[in-house]
Amino acid sequence: MRVTPGMTAENALYNLQKGRSSIDTLQEQVASGLNINKPSDDPLSSRQLLDLQEQINAGEQYSSNITKAGLLLNVTSTALTSMSGLLQQVKKIAGDMVSGTQDPTSVSGAVTNLTQLKSQLIDMGNTRVGDQYVFAGFKNSPPFDNLGNFSGTDDLVNVEIAPGSNVATNVSGGKLLLGGTPPAAVGSGATAGTSPVNILGTIDALILAINGNNKAGIADGVKNAAAAAQQVSTAISDVAGRQVRLDNMKTMIGNNQNTLKNIYGDIQNVDYAKIGVLLSQKTTAFNAALSATAKLSQLSLLDYMK
């Protein structure tokens, strides 16, 4: 096959355009700081970057969920700890009344204190973070009224912290303070001190027993108060276990995020030293080719027509 001057010119032009395109790509990478600016630059790596970004975005969402869940559980833990302290006072009052003399002054003082303690427990049961009540389940209003009646739900509000892995961010107020929904019966006699405990009902029964000088009722109240304290302690331990799980998952996700971001950066971030050398080489080669082509291809219009 005869190589005509026109064919030589076309080949030279093609090579010059290819060299110019290579320089343009390198300059675009320098300007953007990215190795891949459009999928056609490297389809395989582009797909890898999309997969990595999807995993990074999911990790950020899980981290956000963990932060929110941690806040709710921290507030819940604080409320439970306060409840535990209040129940220790209930136990002390009941113990004092069952073992001491019951003169009108001590009876009045005990009843007043127990009434106040019940009100404080109800206040703790209505603890909220923003518009979310931590003992109300899915209800977005105070779960307890002034008398201690529960109107929330027993549902656990779960937050996803990893694919297929959830953590509950709340405790059922009905189960915690009333022993269940409907409320459990207040233990007496052989059932005193058994679980589940209707904590608010126990305080009401203890007030009645103290007012009526019912020694057996007060003794039952001592047992029920001890069981109530244990019921709250169990809830505290359960919440603490969830908090530890969140902390462990947060650490694991953080490590995974760092790894994924490093891999993403290795693929996508420009090595400016390497790009600088390549750009200098390509530019030098292009200018040399352009000069050589200009000297060797002294073509006229007639040459392109052959």
TrEMBL record:
GO molecular function, one term: structural molecule activity
GO CC entries: bacterial-type flagellum
Key word Membrane present: no
InterPro entries from the UniProt entry: Flagellin, Flagellin_C, Flagellin_N
All residue ranges annotated as the Flagellin N-terminal domain in the record: 7-137
Pfam families named in the record: Flagellin_C, Flagellin_N
All residue ranges annotated as the Flagellin C-terminal domain in the record: 224-305
Subcellular compartments: Secreted; Bacterial flagellum
Keywords recorded for this protein, A-Z: Bacterial flagellum, Cell projection, Cilium, Flagellum, Secreted
Main subcellular location of this protein, as a coarse class: secreted
Function: Flagellin is the subunit protein which polymerizes to form the filaments of bacterial flagella.
Entry's family note: Belongs to the bacterial flagellin family.
PANTHER family for the chain: FLAGELLAR HOOK-ASSOCIATED PROTEIN 3 (PTHR42792:SF1), FLAGELLIN (PTHR42792)
Protein name, UniProt field: Flagellin
Native organism: Citrifermentans bemidjiense (strain ATCC BAA-1014 / DSM 16622 / JCM 12645 / Bem)
Lineage: Bacteria, Pseudomonadati, Thermodesulfobacteriota, Desulfuromonadia, Geobacterales
